[in-house]
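[Meeting: bench + compute handoff]

Bench side (C.D.) handed over the final construct sequence. Compute side (W.E.) agreed to return the predicted structure before the next meeting so the bench team could plan truncations. Sequence as handed over:
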Amino acid sequence: MIDTATNTVTDTVTVGDTPRGMGITPDGAYVYVTNEWDDNVSVIDTSTNTVVGAPIGVGTFPGAIALALVPAPVNLDDPFITGQPLAGQTLSCHPGTWSGAAQFTFQWRRDREAITGETEPEYQLTNADVGHSIDCLVTATNSIGSTSEPSNSTLVANPAGGPPGPPGPPGGDANDELSCAG
């Protein structure tokens, strides 16, 4: 192993017969070394400078190696929510379209602030949501990294059409007479 800051050898790791080419993962966690006369590839964990597991058989006389790298997820079409934005109704968060995504996580938000514990693809709106903007933050993750993208937002209404207005002026019953002093 070589310390690239000082260009000095810091450790020697024994691999197979006639090591030739090598490839390093983008995060620097592993080095893949071709072993030309053993027809395999050794994997070195750079945190411990040890070979991990058994060599990987690859065919006759491997001399070079290329790592096919998957980039962190990239959003192609924005996430979106569906459902009636009324208290008591359920909204669904759809992740949209991504490249390189292996899994998704969801975080429902009220006025762009996380709603504690609401991390499922569905969310049942409550009275606390009325009059507020609701959206869903989708995070796509793969072995390289994570990327987050918010959904569209929607304003939540009261199912009865809105909150009750202020009370009217006090009045009498229908048998009261109206009098005006003149």
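W.E. noted at the follow-up: The longest strand covers residues 133-141. C.D. will use this when planning the next construct.
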